[in-house]
Amino acid sequence: MLSQVYCSGFQPFRQRLLPWVQSTALSRSHRIQPSAIRHVRSWSNIPFITVPLSRAHGKSFAHRSELKHAKRIVVKLGSAVVTRGDECGLALGRLASIVEQVSVLQNQGREMMLVTSGAVAFGKQRLRHEILLSQSVRQALHSGQNQLKEMAIPVLEARACAAAGQSGLMALYEAMFTQYSICAAQILVTNLDFHDEQKRRNLNGTLHELLRMNIVPIVNTNDAVVPPAEPNSDLQGVNVISVKDNDSLAARLAVEMKTDLLIVLSDVEGLFDSPPGSDDAKLIDIFYPGDQQSVTFGTKSRVGMGGMEAKVKAALWALQGGTSVVIANGTHPKVSGHVITDIVEGKKVGTFFSEVKPAGPTVEQQGEMARSGGRMLATLEPEQRAEIIHHLADLLTDQRDEILLANKKDLEEAEGRLAAPLLKRLSLSTSKLNSLAIGLRQIAASSQDSVGRVLRRTRIAKNLELEQVTVPIGVLLVIFESRPDCLPQVAALAIASGNGLLLKGGKEATHSNRILHLLAQEALSIHGVKEAIQLVNTREEVEDLCRLDKMIDLIIPRGSSQLVRDIQKAAKGIPVMGHSEGICHMYVDSEASVDKVTRLVRDSKCEYPAACNALETLLIHRDLLRTPLFDQIIDMLRVEQVKIHAGPKFASYLTFSPSEVKSLRTEYGDLELCIEVVDSIQEAIDHIHKYGSSHTDVIVTENEKTAEFFLQHVDSACVFWNASTRFSDGYRFGLGAEVGISTSRIHARGPVGLEGLLTTKWLLRGQDHVVSDFSEHGSLKYLHENLPVPQRNTN
């Protein structure tokens, strides 16, 4: 049966597979229930991706990002992946997810092969049912029902289980693959099939013919006849390998068939530097030949022949033979997602085996350097941190020519690829660098008492005093697009707050970011904390960085609303500070000044329309329609070439209206503006709460009472009276700079400067105090007296 390129759901599969599964079971009490099949249906939404699949075999891929070009792939399913937790029977939901992913890749034009365990487990289930059935009949006839509970099941020989389970396992695979119009073929092998030259040629020819006909070969050791494995008899070199388990079988098959990629699925996330579960165990992202000396192997999995050591040996053997290898977890599809397709897409899943070591440190190593460097930075005196920032400000002006030359390279490479607003963000100039230097010096001045500032002092009891002091958050990950001027701003704020910093800039600003980062590290070097700020230059995707929850304490995205949304979605266990949209409103009240309105609207919308604090929706009081003030607003927008979108109520007042807005919740980021009519200030506030993004909202009015009502009732991060939305900025607020504008309600809100990058800790100083002294019959009593706090230095 030749495959067709489509991906179907699981409803037909359930209807066709359920009768077969139930007829296969030998006892009603052990039949697979319909709910087990229903679980499968949630795994039918894998994206279909078309990529060029041409590659000469002979050398493994150097980077994960190249795995999407893999044409021929072997997927090895370990016993722990295929079998249920009770080691008796198959994990049907996991198998269905795996089959779907393999089918999607097959239908993309790849050549997929499976090396599967599970025959022993499936056979054990069938034989146990048979034994239970026969024992229950005999004991019911001779001993009565009371002894049924005492029946003991004898130990089942593995070869017999394999013989009983092979046919059922293959029938299950066939039923699953059929739902995707894919044919599967079973091949059982032994060691002899690889070591006997004629048998090896026959096997090779059979596999190639199956792949040519778009059939998925399902390969397994013939456990019904295979002899017991001899320890330490395999993986002695490229030309010598003994098939003693499915790990070595998969490696041998991958090299024999010149496959591009071998995916080994187990019950652990990948390879750890020490046994998983131990206190210091860390997942190894990339493993290189020779690194096995630094790894301590634990015990093997609960089922199966091999352990992690066998998998690593097999992986290195396959890698030496020209096949890339990834070891990953295949037992938790709800947690790990579509692990097979994720690996092929180049996502950071499991452990990737590579022969090419990167020139610089890995992102994990950079995270550790930022952590240790940040802690050293936090211990410096405030004057020393300020000195570093002053030096960085001087470097921005002293090295201006080199910075602008690097920026020119970025602009030349981006010409024709980036839209005009993004090119404007990418561009640096002498005036921008001068403004940056001024902002950095403001940060240096405000950093004098930032870290370690006492916020509260309490006398708990005699000689027992408590302090709450400011401390750095830890390690910040700042991801920014197109804006190289963001790098020195964020670097200065991190230095002032004593935080370690990981920076991930857009590739369109590569040259600019590189020189600015070098200048930041040069400034840090004057006090020996160069490694506190790291620029991520590896091929890590943003989504992969967002998974480093043990290394990163806070993610700050700087870029488009889509970037922010993507990061908020991808972040796993790491807080994200930012806003997904900047839908800023301006309400023009009936008592607004004619002179002020046009100036404020022009500045808010036209000064920099791509900014997140630019005006997007103009709310006008109904009484102002068909007045000179309204006409002036429209004339000004026409002169500035702003495209107007009419809200539903505004459109109803006009005979010939502009294009009606598609959504009142739109961030245009360009010279476009939505105009809507409201009947009152309350309606304006309700509109802002319903369609706004809690970023920045403005009222224009001469009525102070109306203005105060608006300021108190609008629930946004920034609320202004008779001021442009563009004032919502850290530099304009006097913060020196900002890492972004936050619309969240926890920790920091609005433009986030130095204060927003600090948290607190509690310091308790006592003299042999114990809690039992404060009990009902104790000798001490709580005082809880507030003590004076040292005055903050505001100079």
From TrEMBL:
Pathway: Amino-acid biosynthesis; L-proline biosynthesis; L-glutamate 5-semialdehyde from L-glutamate: step 2/2; Amino-acid biosynthesis; L-proline biosynthesis; L-glutamate 5-semialdehyde from L-glutamate: step 1/2. GO terms for molecular function: ATP binding; glutamate 5-kinase activity; glutamate-5-semialdehyde dehydrogenase activity; identical protein binding. Pfam families: AA_kinase (PF00696), Aldedh (PF00171). The keyword RNA-binding does not apply. Residues 71-329 form the Aspartate/glutamate/uridylate kinase domain. Keywords: Amino-acid biosynthesis, ATP-binding, Kinase, Mitochondrion, Multifunctional enzyme, NADP, Nucleotide-binding, Oxidoreductase, Proline biosynthesis, Transferase. Residues 364-625 form the Aldehyde dehydrogenase domain. GO terms for cellular component: mitochondrial matrix. GO terms for biological process: citrulline biosynthetic process; glutamate metabolic process; L-proline biosynthetic process; ornithine biosynthetic process. Its EC number is 2.7.2.11, 1.2.1.41. The keyword DNA repair does not apply. It catalyses: L-glutamate 5-semialdehyde + phosphate + NADP(+) = L-glutamyl 5-phosphate + NADPH + H(+); L-glutamate + ATP = L-glutamyl 5-phosphate + ADP. InterPro entries: AceGlu_kinase-like_sf (IPR036393), Ald_DH/histidinol_DH (IPR016161), Ald_DH_C (IPR016163), Ald_DH_N (IPR016162), Aldehyde_DH_dom (IPR015590), Asp/Glu/Uridylate_kinase (IPR001048), G-glutamylP_reductase_CS (IPR020593), G5K_ProBA (IPR041744). It is found in: Mitochondrion matrix. Its main location: mitochondrion. Bifunctional enzyme that converts glutamate to glutamate 5-semialdehyde, an intermediate in the biosynthesis of proline, ornithine and arginine. NCBIfam families: P5CS, PRK00197.1, proA. Can form homodimers/multimers. In the C-terminal section; belongs to the gamma-glutamyl phosphate reductase family. In the N-terminal section; belongs to the glutamate 5-kinase family. This is Delta-1-pyrroline-5-carboxylate synthase. The gene is ALDH18A1.
